[in-house]
Amino acid sequence: MKKKFLTASQVLKLWMALPRSEQYSTNAKRFAKMAGLKSILEVRTQAWLEEKKIPFKYECEKWKYQYEEAHYTPDFIVDGMPFVIECKGKLTKEVRKKMVAVVKCNPDRVLYMVFERPDNKINRGSRTTYGQWADKLGIKWSHGTPDPVWFKKGKKRAKG
After folding, report:
1. Range of the domain at 60
2. Which of 35, 83, 106, 122 is within CB 3.0–4.6 Å of 11 for a Cys-Cys bond?
3. What's the CA gap between 49 and 111, in Å, rounded?
4. Which of 54, 14, 58, 55 is nearest to 34 (CA)?
């Protein structure tokens, strides 16, 4: 029997109705699962894509990358667009290492990132923020939801 999920917009409304004191990571994961997703940031991104009536698929491709034999599954494949969207709340050292490998092993693919908090430092004591890290790699990024500019028709295919 197929599991019935709420829409991302419905989950987001429920989430936003919670008192701020109850909007913590355990609840976030529980609420995201209601929409068949993994994080509130993914819920927010999917709700935004749906609101803008932008067709997409969720985690439907696997990309090879290598520092060990592994596969990467981008969060959102946007129909008709030359890029995928990856949502990141926390950018750990392991995640950064993986994303560098993904970008290097897939030069013909374009990855855009949506950060929950792009001004967070990549680690304690570092001056580099998530956004600066992405800039250094040539990855386009946005804060909280996808950047509407990414979806403008007639733009040349962006490399990062």
Report:
1. 56-151
2. 35
3. 16
4. 14
In this structure, which amino acid lies at residue 132?
Q
From CA 151, how far away is CA 139, in angstroms rounded? 16
Long-range contacts of 18-26 (CB under 8 A, 24+ apart): none
**Number of domains comprising the chain:** 2
- State the helix-helix crossing angle for 93-105 and 130-137, rounded to 10 degrees: 20
- Does residue 40 register a pLDDT over 70? yes
- Same-domain pairing of 66 and 21: no
Sign of the Cα torsion 131, 87, 25, 90 reads: negative
Question: For the chain, where are the alpha helices, taking DSSP H only?
Answer: 8-17, 25-34, 40-51, 93-105, 130-137
First to last CA, the chain: 40
Distance CA 34, CA 151 (A): 27
Please state whether the predicted TM-score (pTM) of the whole model is above 0.70: no
Split at pLDDT 50, 70, 90, the class of 69 is low
